[in-house]
Write a structure and sequence with these properties.
The chain has about 180 residues and is an all-alpha fold. The chain has helices at about 1-40, 50-65, 65-70, 90-125, 135-165.
Length: about 180
């Protein structure tokens, strides 16, 4: 059973690493677009109407789609005032309780509502109100995708916390 849990956790970690590393390039693409905008605006004296809209969408994509990668690597905010002083077993118990009470319900609601939110946007092929009518339905689709990946990564961490409870102070986090 432990081998199966480790295989599942490792596969989910691999997916989070893959999506995170791919999506990190979106920040570079956004930066290139901003450099292009600065060049055309200040050197060629020509402003592009589409740049603000596109860079906003790129950075929204970047920050949402890197969420599971950030969770896997411990980059989200965590308050370890109490659990940091506890044994590994107690830390695992506290993490499991907090995941069951806070993480899974809240991310599950975002996933569930995000599906409807994206579906409604796709139904009308929603676009932005700006001069450059960018497709918003694509951006809204990111919400359920991101929350699904976040739920998967949370499940992988949940499995590891069960292992932490079983192994106690002998538990070593897999990297």
């Amino acid at each position: 059973m432990r081998k199966l849990a480790n295989t599942i956790s490792s596969a989910i970690d691999g997916l989070s690493d893959w999506t995170g590393k791919i999506c990190m390039w979106s920040a570079f693409i956004g930066m290139l677009i901003m450099v292009y905008e600065c060049f055309t605006r200040y050197v060629l004296h020509y402003a592009n109407d589409w740049v603000f809209e596109v860079t906003t969408m790129i950075y929204a994509f970047h920050f949402t789609m890197c969420a599971s990668y950030a969770l896997k690597n411990g980059a989200h905010v965590a308050i370890d005032i109490v659990s940091g002083k506890c044994s590994k077993r107690v830390q695992g118990i506290l993490d499991i309780i907090s995941y069951c009470i806070f993480f899974f319900p809240s991310v599950g609601i975002v996933f569930w509502r995000g599906i409807k939110f994206a579906a409604d946007s796709w139904a009308i092929h929603e676009v932005s109100w700006s001069e450059y009518p960018a497709p918003i339905y694509l951006q809204k689709t990111i919400i359920p995708v991101m929350s699904f990946l976040l739920l998967l990564q949370g499940f992988a961490i949940f499995l590891r916390r069960i292992e932490m409870i079983v192994d106690g102070d002998n538990y070593k986090e897999a990297k």
